[in-house]
Specification:
By secondary structure, the protein is an alpha+beta fold. It is built from five helices and four strands, in the order ααββββααα. A hairpin with a 5-residue loop joins strand 3 and strand 4. The chain crosses the membrane at residues 31-52, 165-187.
Amino acid sequence: MAKSSTASMTSQHKRKQQAKTLRQFRSIHRAMGALLFVFFFVISVSGLLLGIKKNSGDILLPKTQKGTTTDLTKWLPLEDLKEKALLVLHDSVSSELDTKLNRIDVRSEKGIVKFIFDKHYYGIQLDGATGEVLHIGKRRSDVIENIHDGSIIDNYLGTSGYFKLIYTVIMSIALLLFTLTGFWLWYGPKRMRKSRN
């Protein structure tokens, strides 16, 4: 009888402990959800848009055009193509735009070179062999990517990637905690029911 009573008390104590743990996880989960709701919303929407950027019909990301040849020996020197892209930016878009490049994307398999600018998200595609302008347009996906990873704040404040680093670490840890607490809120009650049987 004493053994049965002790076992019952141990079982009750264990269930109380499990219930307390569940309440703590629920509190953490709720607090994180409330505090980080806006950030999770921004990350999920921007992530969705980045996932469909190539299928957005040129709205988010301009389609990669095709040049006249993929034979690099027939291409103009990269420096000449760069000068042409800078001239096109000022002549066809605005003479007041910054000409600092973010990157030069050589697509030899397509016969083109993309010049992507740093400050204003414009992109210019040139035929690698002729230098002909194939496309000028905004790369909205780059703006969305900068919002997604927090680097838009670094660009605005000039903080050299520190905001992006802090933001990424905080959001990664928060998402991990959110996942773990969410899993426990699902699994905990199942475990408690098992221990009753």
